[in-house]
Amino acid sequence: MDRIDNGLRRFWRVVSLMAVLALLVAACGGSGGTTTTAGGTTTTGGGTGTTQPTGTTEPGEQIGGTVTVYGTWGGAEEEAFRAMVAPFEERTGIQVQYTGTRDINTVLSAGVQSGILPDLAGLPGPGQMAEWARQGALVDLSTVIDYDQYVSETSPGFVELGTVDGKLVGVFIKAAVKGLIWYNPNVWTGGDLDSWDAVVAAANAHEGAQAGWCVGLESGAASGWPGTDWIEDFVIRQSGPEVYDRWYQGELPWTSPEIRQAFEAFGEVIANSYGGSQYAIATNFGDAGQPLFTDPAGCLFHHQASFMAGEFFPNYPTSPQPGEDFDFFIMPTINPAYQGALTGAGDLFGMFNDTPQARALMQWLVSAEAQQIWVDRGGAISGNSKVTSYPDPISQKSAEALAKAEVFRFDASDLMPEAMNAAFWQAVLDYTQNPGNLDRILEDLDRVRQDAYGG
Amino acid sequence: MTGTLTAVREPEPAPPGPQERRAGTAYLAMLGFPVGAHRWYLGHTLAGVLYVVTFALLAIARFALRERVEQDFAPIWTVAVGLVVAQLVLDAIAIPRWARKPSRDVPLPAPLILLLGVLATIFLLPFLLDVLGSAFSGIFGGNTRVGRQVAMMIIAIIGVPLVLVGYIVLMEHTLRHFTDVAQRRIRPWLWLLPALFFLYTFLVYPTYGTIRRSLYNRAGDTFIGLENYRWFFESPNTLTALRNNVLWLVFFTVISVIGGLLVATLFDRVRYENFAKTIVFVPMAISFVAASVVWRFMYVWNPNLPGSKQTGTLNAIIVALGGEPIDFISTRGINNFALIAVACWIWVGFCMVILSAGIKSIDRELLEAARVDGATEWQVFRRIMLPLLAPTIAVVTTTMLIFALKTFDIVYAMTNGNFDTNVIALEMWNQFSYAEYGRASAVAVVLLAAIVPVMAYNIRSFRRQEEVR
Fold first, then answer.
1. What is the CATH number of domain A66-177+345-403?
2. CA of A13, closest CA in chain B: separation in Å?
3. Interface test with B, best of A9, A11, A23, A450 (most B CBs within 10 A)
4. CB B283 within 8 A of CB B346
5. pLDDT tens digits for range A383-428
6. Which of B90, B433, B437 to mutate to test the interface with A (most CBs of A within 10 A)?
7. ipTM
8. Which of A242, A305, A355, B253 has a CA 20 to 30 Å removed from the CA of B59?
9. Looking at chain A, which residues constitute the CATH 3.40.190.10 domain(s)?
10. Beta strands at A407-410 and A341-351: parallel, antiparallel or unpaired
């Protein structure tokens, strides 16, 4: 072989190797290419969205296409949601693809990291929502819905909770009033009580019932939360909204007297509860009210949010009727300095992908017309103040309580970081089982607090 | 032999004539043009125009379709221009050289064109996805998502093999430029490369990433050394999880393996063996979560109060026998074993099947000989069956050990780790859901470190068994 041929051979060798390498790189880049495409499609609407003036999509306009929604609703709540979007689907031709998951936080957290997200989703809570909003994952809804109208129709507390850094990123699809004390008027004939001492006295006497309270803490992976509601209601009524705010923001130690006092008050309730602590732990929160309606009655009072009236009481074996078999009064003021304080919760909704379909659905969901559909199914309270017609006196009463609350605070555990929230649930169960370990339980909570807040 | 896989047509032996002409014809032949009809520069220009037009069309199509400038629009142009420039440069070097001394090898542009094809496919993919997606969505009643999924599936079914075939053709083509010895040495690696690439993407890199992430803080921007591991070995909750995993390791493994062995041995020679084994095996077909739900009902506890009945199967039995009902789920000291019992209920069938196969493979004559020599059934079992079964038992045991270490579903569905029943895998999940990715990774690494020795032993003993066969 001569020199040139050798040189040529070496040249080809290098070049072909490079080509193979380039192909491999291209293959790797290929997978990268497809992921950017996924991102590309999700942002497609973003491009058109900015040029599109607000509210051009009329509810009656036929758009077609689909919109994906993730939520925590299952069973009756899912049916209510589907009923709520049915007229929307008919009018716009848009298909709403709803997926219900109990692990919404994990699903969406992973989604925010990977970019694979539903168009709209129920958000786990204001705390998590704020984090995602700061990461830029949530769309500013003030350009999507008629902002002024939303503000005028919604209680300021809810607007504020959905706003992060001046941007409205979450709206309340429905609300729930917490701290309601349910009773069976056939057993408890004393009507509404307006002082906590009177409630305690009545519960201790538990005339006509085996115990003062019914408590049920079991709720699958979220077991313990009904107890956190109890403690929150004590904190806000004993120590006021300022302490409440500092507490959920992680500034107030769990070992502080205010929080300890609330735990102890909850402990007294457990001590006077039907079946005792073991029963409270083993009983599902939904079934917990059943002893109200047994004969003889198991308990006099049951502390739970407004949703009990819609999804749980009516489905009990004796099918209790609102007003006749069950009624409620708002948990009364404890410290007169904090008159009219109320806690509540709601289902926050946010938008991840700005598509015309998602816009249309969001506009529909916040409208009074859509809200009325859900409300009519019973048990739900609308965050929209234009919705005033409720199907039964109980829901009407809850809605009025929400409307006239002097101090309104969102469920504190939902505002805490996820790790703190989970530890709180667990602490409630732990304390219910071992009331003697309160010191250790509160210290453990403080240890979690020290690293759950912060980056 | 080496060239059998190449799709590229080899040029005719160079006809006599000006060298320039030969170069051009070969080049055109390689491009697929009829040989000898055109001069080389014509082919060259054509190829260049082809590149530009392809990419321009591609870009215009995407631009028109999406009604806006895509973010990945610029890279397309970069690649297109780069390719054309690269071709010009390479041609400038290669073709005169090739013309001076024609070789039987096809010149450079062949691999380049293949490469171009692959690149074009990759960049075309989103476009293709859009077009095919909307086409299919028509079939599926206007459901664009389903349409896109179907399109993606079809592209994957056609595209992936296409890319792999392209890779093989290109690779074999490249190999022809090497000596036979070098070819023999390189070829296996080139064939292995795609597999190694997948192994790297789905196994090596994630492992590396997890270990790396476990050394960083929650946000992932600050290196914090072994802080996450310190947390793991200091926080009471994870230590409880660790303790429970030890309970699982010991009790779950022992009960399910011994239970499986017992069932396999006892049912070995009965007439209704298959039926009995089927019954034991059935729980294996039930998902863990479903089994957990079933067993939650079995474990239901109600307080002993007037008007209340025990609705849980086990407590109903206990009360009927005159005992006090037990809260299996939340009583510490009992609940962990209640959970382990559920896992055993599922896995005994699996152990039984494997061990039963082991027993069946023991030579019957051996057992008969022992019995003829006057051995009792126990001696036969203890001295002959057990030693012969040892390798099978080892494999089953290690499999159960691994399952015990990574147990998750049953605990998650039944107690969610409450009442001191937490396990490591569930703690990893919890940390992940708190967005504590550093800690979650640290837990994962601890779990991995615990499983690897068992896994290694399992593979080794499995291999030894294979050698015996």
1. 3.40.190.10
2. 6
3. A23
4. yes
5. 888 888 888 888 888 888 887 787 888 899 888 888 899 999 999 9
6. B433
7. 0.72
8. A355
9. 66-177+345-403, 178-343+412-453
10. parallel
